[in-house]
Design a protein that fits this description.
mainly alpha, about 280 residues, two-stranded antiparallel sheet, disordered N terminus
């Protein structure tokens, strides 16, 4: 399984390395240490930028927030039913796929991937790849810290606790296991990586493939009764907000962009209907 995880990481990050080799090496008058300290400061700045964005939201941003809140609340109403429905096919999902999802969303493996991308860009003196690594690390750190704090404040029961999705033990400084479900950390870390890496490519098929791989960890946690479907859905949307916010911040810090031509806007929206709840993506 470790070999499978390594293979999938190489497949997802390999095109980035190819881009780094095909693009001219970025030469600056700074040495490696100066680049590293600059990037470290940019990572911290990006995290702070993401956390401060609600103070500057306007109509469109508040509309997106309202849609996310409404969608999450709707899923809260069907969490128990969805979990019972999932009992009918949990054993049919391959263990190898679930194991991959759990490992890929693990914080240690996540930082091994993001750190590897960044260090490659740093030592190749390639600003575009450095920026990608900075985006990956900053997004994972911002989302990871936020979900750890949220788990302790909210204290939601996990499915495997035996309690319903509406059971809470909030406001604990120490982590209370089985009551730390919302939101899903695996979903946040894995989809942050997938969404950030997908920004490097114009092809909707490559983007869709990366999004699919990034969705596996969250769904694996639902299969293993560690999370409700609303935990995963909210974590996924939160990771998109964080990556987009930090990426805009990085525009003012680096001259190299992901694509020379203007990227098409990726439009995410929540859809609700009779017996249906979903996330629509338009390229």
């Amino acid at each position: 399984m470790r070999n499978l995880l390594l293979l999938c990481v190489l497949l997802s990050c390999g095109p980035l390395l190819s881009q780094a080799e095909s693009n001219p090496t970025i030469r600056t008058d700074k040495n490696l240490w100066q680049d590293f300290t600059y990037d470290l400061g940019t990572i911290m700045g990006g995290i702070g930028h993401a956390y401060s964005r609600p103070l500057y939201w306007k109509g469109k941003q508040w509309t997106h927030f309202g849609a996310t809140a409404a969608g999450t609340a709707t899923l809260f109403l069907v969490d128990d039913e969805f979990d019972h429905w999932a009992d009918g096919f949990r054993d049919d999902i391959p263990d190898g796929l679930v194991d991959f999802g759990i490992r890929y969303g693990n914080p240690q493996n996540n930082y091994a991937v993001t750190g590897g991308v960044y260090l490659t860009g740093l030592f190749l003196r390639n600003e575009k790849l450095r920026r990608t690594g900075v985006l990956l690390i900053a997004s994972a750190t911002a989302g990871g810290f936020l979900q750890q704090v949220s788990k302790r404040i909210i204290g939601r029961a996990r499915p495997k606790s035996g309690d319903s999705s509406s059971t809470y033990r909030p406001f604990h400084l120490d982590r209370v296991f089985n009551y730390d479900s919302f939101p899903s950390g695996h979903a946040i870390l894995a989809f942050s990586n997938a969404y950030a890496i997908a920004k490097q490519f114009k092809s909707p098929w490559i983007k869709a493939g990366l999004y699919t791989v990034g969705s596996i960890p969250g769904l694996a946690r639902v299969r293993d009764s560690f999370h409700w479907i609303s935990d995963v859905a909210f974590g996924t949307v939160l990771s998109i907000f964080i990556v987009e916010s930090i990426d805009k911040y990085l525009d003012s810090k680096y001259t190299q962009k992901y694509n020379s031509e203007k990227e098409k806007t990726v439009d995410w929206s929540l859809n609700f209907g009779v017996n249906t709840v979903g996330i629509a993506v338009r390229f």
